[in-house]
Write a structure and sequence with these properties.
single chain; coiled coil; CT398_CC_hairpin; Helix Hairpins; mainly alpha; rod-shaped; 2 domains
Length: 243
């Protein structure tokens, strides 16, 4: 059985307390609320960019539709201008005059339809272009908020990291002052138990509480003062705290 001064064994409880502090600090760093906010902001930004691509494509298509509508109206107006010039030129025969006037009338009706389509195309383009602009503005707001969150995260990281550095330094100093074979047993126990390396035994009560059979308790009491006792149930080191 490995031996180590009981005073050093008892210091393992302080070592474990420091390790627990480090675990809590690491958990706090991983689970900062701001990290979820950043994650949600990144998702919102990605969705915004997706919608921007869609809105830009729709606005581009609407602009092309508007261009075609403008061209159709311009073409119809140009044709009407030519017809009116012919009509008022005095060179049209009486036989062709009726046909020319009829074409002008039909063109006027067609122009009315084309202008309605032109107006609808303009409204559609302005609506889609406006939505695209709104999404661009929103992107800027999201990015600004993201920068605020990043600054907040970095500030909180810095505080936690500074505290972690202090605790780590204390932990290293304490571990270096102890028997390295004792520290190795402690580290193995922590690894085997998922974090519990040592428990203090106060009479028949342990802290943290673990299962100790009457037979094991009797063996612990009978063991040499400096004997390093490992729990049969948990593999954690059991340190006797009663003098």
């Amino acid at each position: 059985m490995t031996s180590a001064p009981l005073s050093q064994q008892r210091q393992l409880l302080e070592l474990q307390d420091l390790d627990n502090q480090l675990s809590r600090l690491a958990a706090r760093r991983r689970n900062l609320p701001v990290l979820s906010e950043i994650e949600n902001t990144v998702k919102e930004l990605k969705e915004n960019k997706r919608l921007q691509v869609l809105a830009q494509a729709q606005a581009t298509e609407a602009k092309q539709d508007l261009k075609r509508a403008d061209d159709d109206v311009e073409q119809a107006n140009n044709r009407a201008k030519v017809l009116r010039q012919r009509l008022h030129s005095g060179t049209v025969s009486a036989r062709d005059l009726g046909a020319l006037q009829g074409e002008l009338d039909q063109l006027g009706k067609r122009l009315s339809v084309l202008e309605t389509k032109q107006l609808e195309a303009l409204e559609t383009y302005e609506d889609l272009s406006g939505k695209y602009s709104e999404l661009q503005v929103r992107e800027g707001e999201i990015r600004a908020f993201g920068r605020e969150l990043t600054a907040k995260r970095d500030s909180e990281f810095a505080r936690i990291d500074a505290e972690t550095s202090q605790v780590t330094q204390r932990r290293e100093q304490l571990a270096a002052s102890l028997s390295q074979s004792l520290v190795q047993i402690y580290e193995r126990a922590r690894k085997a138990t998922g974090g519990l390396g040592v428990v203090g035994l106060y009479g028949a009560r342990s802290e943290p509480t673990i299962e100790i059979s009457p037979q094991e308790l009797a063996a612990i009491r009978a063991a040499a003062r400096d004997a390093v006792i490992v729990s049969e149930e948990t593999e954690a080191i059991i340190v006797r705290m009663d003098d």
